[in-house]
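CORE FACILITY INTAKE
Project code: CF-77B
Contact: R.S. (postdoc)
Sample description: multi-component assembly, two entities in total
Requested service: structural model of the whole complex
Turnaround: standard
Below are the sequence entries exactly as provided by the requester. Do not edit them.
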Amino acid sequence: MGILGGEGFSLPVVTSTEVVDVQIEFTEPAKQAMKSTMGEDGTTHVVIISAESGGCSGYMYDMQIVEDPNDDSFQRMDVGGLTVLVNNKDSEMLSGIRVDYKDTLMGGGFQIDNPNADRSCGCGQSFG
Amino acid sequence: MPPLDLHPVAEVIPSPCSVSVLKGDTAIEHLNRTLTVKTSELQFSDRVDGLLCNANGRILDRLMVCNLGEEILLIGNHGVGGDTRENLIRGIPWDEEITVMNGDGAITHLRLIGRAVNRCLAGLGIDPLEISEERWIEYGSALVSRTEYSESSVIEILVPSAELDAFTALLHENGAISSDRNRCESLRIELGILDHREMNSAFLPLELGLSHMVSLNKGCYPGQEIHARMDSRGKASRGIVRLYLPSDVAVGKHKVPGVGSITVTASAKAFEGSVALAVVPLPAIALEELELREGLIAVMQSL
């Protein structure tokens, strides 16, 4: 459509984010759960913990097992022989979090306690 | 209350706005995580109006979303475009390539209001029957859509600012007029068209009657818990009304004996007095009149 064809649109907007050295605490159940989930992929794959917009409180946690992106924009941590990555842009929001794992039928799985959050959603998936 | 006095053809009402553009394969999904309405199923040229809220459920911005294919055009409230763009950028996931651009000033938002708007549109060569609330149609470089208010249908026009003078001249040639600032504001208030003076962090969507811009079944978005709780408990504690007054009323908070605090968000001269928008405690909405101060009685009407 032609409405965007004219002048007046600026270059992509950038926003500055503070980068901090990420410290994350993993409980033993969390380490065991990650090891068991990754299985033999632990040598080639990494766990990326990140934050994205959404959820009731503004941001949602996300954990993904992916092939190591070998990207300088991530900070690397060794957690019991597994590699955990956090993107620099999420470092301020995620540094200091405690990752636990609860083996329950309802509301089980990885749980994140975030001291940086002013508020969190009832389901624990979202913070702000 | 005096009847709504619409121009026999149409009036062109400028609506100050902010303009942002999102680019990227997942831009629609990113918006879907953030706005109060579902955007994930928007097709090319579709329109949806939604709110960006904070975690307390309060309004940060109102966004008219236009899916332009490779880009998503966002028309927001005047003066808050920078905050909205910042908000959108901060939440971009590490594995998604989404670009946010600032288009403030590049596009002008006009509204066309009147008794024979369709005649004016037909004069431009636009079939009025093609204009709906759910999509944008192209007219040259401009985009045209429609919003239905209880008193009248309003034509929404987005035009590149560089072409504004030529476009306005075309509208004038087809019977429309441009009105002064006070008339634009009084029309806005009489039609119940809310803007940044109402849709801001002082208010919750349900207090402004904006439940049509809040989806309670799309899943989580910032503010959703608050909106769901308000909906399930059945009411907001305040509501928005229109006031007809014999004289001017100041914008701001007023203590009304027997009612409590009301917030006048906008006012304009109209008829022999003024017309205003105000957010009042819910029990007061059932009243027909409100005595703002001794001798100043406002006739009240729900939006």
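Facility notes:
- Chain B has two domains: 1-233, 237-303.
- The two ends of chain B are 13 Å apart (CA to CA).
Invoice: internal transfer
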